[in-house]
Write a structure and sequence with these properties.
Strand order of the largest sheet: 6-5-4-7-8-9
Radius of gyration: 25 Å
Helix content: 25-40%
Low-confidence stretches: 4-44, 86-93
Number of strands: 14
Strand content: 15-25%
Order of helices and strands: EEEEHEEHEHHEHHHEHHEEHHHEHEE
Mean pLDDT: 89
Shape: elongated
Largest sheet: 6 strands, parallel
Length: 413
Amino acid sequence: MWRRARPRAGILTVGVGGGRVTGVTDPAPPVPPSPPVPPGAEASRGPLAGLRVLELAALGPAPHAAMILADLGADVVRVERPPGRGLALGPEGGPDGVRDQVLRSRRSVAADLKAPGGLEVARRLADRADVLIEGLRPGVLERLGLGPQECLARNPRLVFARVTGWGQEGPWARDVGHDLSYLSVTGVLHALGRAGQAPVPPLNLVADYGGGSMLCVVGVLAALLERGISGRGQVIDVAMVDGVGLLAQLQWSLRGSGGWSDERGSNLLDGGAPFYDVYPCADGGWVAVAALEPHFYADLLHGLGLAGEPLPAQHDRAGWPQLRRRFAAVLATRPRDVWVERFRGTQACVTPVLSFAEAPSHEHAAARGAHVTLDGVVQAAPAPRFSRTPAPPPRPPRPPGADPAAEIWPSPA
């Protein structure tokens, strides 16, 4: 179990998986290391090594949050539901049987939570876990007898993270939805898109992942830190509608000061400004222009060969249409990569708009090792980067139910 032991003599002592990590001045004798991780889990490394996370199978942000914790070394065990239920985006739902790569780096057990035997498997794992992550609608786990009240009564140190679109309370809490549903009521979807055109769905990155999984990870880590002080777990209500609101805090602030309009495509950061937008090039490629600061804007004009032209001032909104036409006309005269080379080493903030196919080969991504290949699938490498406790290499997703539940986190003899 991942725990913080009682501090002694002002020295923070953190317990991980049966061992201890103490300050270098702590005179306590070393504690024997934890026993080897069972086959299928491999050696646990990274900053969250020893943290036990139980993930109840769901779609969207819950498995993504579990993936991030697993990437950082947590021992994540996913309880798979019986096949044939829910949206077919699961482990075997891809082309040619390719597994869902969001499910990488964890173990997998099969358990039908509606059957007594499967429910007991989940309860036993929850008894031994540090964290439980679930993404079911409010009330589902309570009806099964696996809700937070039951789990924390058996394991008071458990951090119970509940990730939903609408949250655990409110008139819409039990309604169904997807990323776009939750995003639509926050004001953010209305702001995305071109002036006079329909709002544009931003993939499922904003509500599912920005407002859901990333907020879940923050909540889990904060609750674990607090548990080190109180010794007690707690329930985390992660609502995507709340998380999206936090992501949009700058827009709320600008709106409050009169610096943001609800008119789509008319603001500084929504494509309304001609110096913060994307433009097509001669070869059909695109470049992104983000020359916000005056000296960046000066470099942009110089690189476009427009420094000597009598153009409207940068922040003269009445002149923005003229600037946009001029920028578009010039950028359309050369291929994308020619412009990228022309602006290399400047502060104009002109960059190529790359496809998923192109992105891994970009020189910066390649130099940083930003992508890995698992099961023949190119994907993002674990992040962020840690100096002393780097994340372990990610492991391919396990087949659903590949790991015997009895061998996972066995009770001490």
